[in-house]
Amino acid sequence: MDKYEKVKKIGEGSFGKAILVRSREDGHQYVIKEIGISRMSSKERQESRREVAVLANMSHPNIVQYKESFEEGGCLYIVMDYCEGGDLFKKINNQKGVLFPEEQILDWFVQICLALKHVHDRKILHRDIKSQNIFLTKDGTIQLGDFGIARVLNSTVELARTCIGTPYYLSPEICENKPYNNKSDIWALGCVLYEMCTLKHAFEAGNMKNLVLKIIRGSYPPVSVHYSQDLRSLLGLLFKRNPRERPSVCAILDKPFLARRIHKFLSPQVRHMHADSNESIALTAKRPAPGPAPITPSQKITKPAAKYGVPLTVKRPVCAGRKVADAAKKQVDRKPGVRPKQVIHTSDWRQFIHTRI
């Protein structure tokens, strides 16, 4: 820390502290993320160091630039560029109810998508996309930051099973105790877009139980008709409850009303790289053996919805013959005018493995 002069503390969370510093070498300001590792287990230390590896591999005009990292006095220090324009959350709050122009929203949104594409192309989940983690530089450029809880995916089979993230941005599949992939980042992206359009969270409630129920139902107040049909339709796609029905970040950027903006934010070289990138967002991997794999206690999926007191019943998978018989029985027993309840099986997550995102 001798190389840096502390200016002030600008944030604090479960990870540790964020400190604004000035370099004694070049006089520039940076943000240092201080993570206490002295009391961590070896596994937790490895997780903290993983963030450094993730950050070091990120090089994009719309991603907060990593400078260096070091360990000292029982702490891990990660040095990153300082975004003088603050975060998007503060920018939204400063509007005091005055809506942003659509042009501004779309310019910001395209930059966020370009950053997220760079992340997903590298088989990484951000897992904490929110307006507080989206920053503005002095000239107004958007930069995506805080990969503190991102996870590198070694294969499609390695699906994240940890309930992490700010509750307002949790996707339905996380709330329903299901494994998730890139499409949970897409849901969170929808939450940020909604905030930019309404200056409010899409899903709000007085307690966690009701918040989780709202998210699972996918019920949110409509966006003002002040905005275009293209923008409002896009929100509907990002908020599809079934993750397989949500578009990938590439499909989002392919939409004409967004694609024509890309040239404003990328140099010709970077734009060419994006256009020709064959780094599959649909993560390719060996297919798992057929049939349900046994889950040991250490592999059990966390149950955030149950933790919040939401009664969710997940039935065990049944064989194909029994499914047909059950379906026929339900058809006979169904009362006129009453729609049957949809049952989601725990085996459904395996379909993610064969889905090109």
Structural write-up:
- This protein is an alpha+beta fold.
- The chain folds into three domains: 4-81, Phosphorylase Kinase, domain 1, CATH 3.30.200.20; 88-276, Transferase(Phosphotransferase), domain 1, CATH 1.10.510.10; 297-353, no CATH class.
- Helices cover 34% and strands 14% of the residues.
- The strands form three sheets. A five-stranded antiparallel sheet has the order 1-2-3-5-4, covered by helices on one side.
- Mean pLDDT is 76; it is low at 154-158, 278-320 and 334-357.
What's this entry about, in short?
With 357 residues, the chain is α+β, with helices and mostly antiparallel strands. Helices cover 34% and strands 14% of the residues. The two termini are 43 Å apart.
* Mass-distribution shape: globular
Tell me the distance between the termini.
43 Å
- What structural category characterises the helix and strand content? alpha+beta
CATH architecture of the largest domain: Orthogonal Bundle
Binding site for ATP: 33
Cofactor: Mg(2+)
GO molecular function, one term: ATP binding
InterPro entries: Kinase-like_dom_sf, NEK_Ser/Thr_kinase_NIMA, Prot_kinase_dom, Protein_kinase_ATP_BS, Ser/Thr_kinase_AS
How would you summarize the topology of this molecule?
Elements: E1 4-13, E2 16-23, E3 29-36, H1 42-56, E4 66-72, E5 75-81, H2 88-93, H3 102-121, E6 124-125, E7 134-136, E8 142-144, E9 151-152, H4 172-175, H5 182-198, H6 208-217, H7 229-238, H8 249-253, H9 256-259, H10 268-276, H11 304-307, H12 320-333, H13 350-353
Antiparallel strand pairs: 1-2, 2-3, 3-5, 4-5, 6-9, 7-8
Helix pairs in contact: 3-5
